[in-house]
Structure formats: C-alpha cells, structure tokens
Amino acid sequence: MMPMQRLCRFLFPLLAACSVLLMSSSCALFRGGSDPAPELRVRPTGVVLKVDPHQHFVVFESGFRFRPEQQVFAVRDGRRMARLRVHSQSRPPFYVADILEGRPEVDDLIE
To answer: Under a CB-based contact definition with an 8 Å cutoff, are residues 59 and 72 in contact?
Structure first.
C-alpha cells in the first residue's frame, strides 16, 4: 500500500469522528446563543445597617470577626456594589467601614 493511502485510511475515520463530536448538540461552539455570565456567589457575612455618604462610611453587623484594615464588599442582587475597608474603631458584632469606592445601601450584604 502506498504511504498516502495508508495515511488517508487512518485520517478519514478520525476526522469523521471529530466532526460528529463537534456538531453534536452538547458542543458549546454550535449552541444557539451564548451562555449567560455566571452569577457572583455571595457568601453573606453581614448586613449594612447605616450608610453615611457624606462622611464616606457604613456601619454593618456581622457574626464573623473582621480585622482592622480588612477589605470587604457590599453586595446587592449578586453584584458587588462597593468596596469597603473595616475601621480599627469597630466593636463586634458592629463594624464601621470606610467606603473606598461604589455606593452601598442599607440592607446590602457584606462579603
């Protein structure tokens, strides 16, 4: 047998199998539309009780302990709305945090 015929005999079944796999309904390349973006999985550790936008701080309550200067996020509807830094003058279970960026609101979850 000639080398080219041998190569074709090997490659043809391999290419046929690959094309069947790619065109199957489970392949993401041929699905209609795109997959929705994964939602942020929130691990709530507290809740915002008060927001003072003029002084740029929030008060939140949590059963977890936070270190001074630790950064946390205020989360609403699965989206991070603000980045916060825990203040050293906090008294558990109540914490004071400086607003570094974003716009937190009362009842936002703390992550």
So the answer is: no
Does the predicted model carry a pTM greater than 0.85? no
Going by C-alpha positions, the residue among 31, 76, 74, 29 that lies closest to residue 56 is 74
Distance in Å from the first CA to the final CA of the chain = 68
Percent of the chain, pLDDT > 70?
60
pLDDT tens-place string over residues 22-65? 565 455 554 555 555 555 554 668 999 999 999 999 999 999 89
Q: Cα–Cα distance between 58 and 88 in angstroms, integer?
A: 13
Residue 95 backbone dihedrals phi, psi, to 5 degrees: -125, 145
Rounded distance between C-alpha atoms, residue 111 and residue 108, angstroms: 10
Q: How far, in Å, CA of 80 to CA of 102, rounded?
A: 9
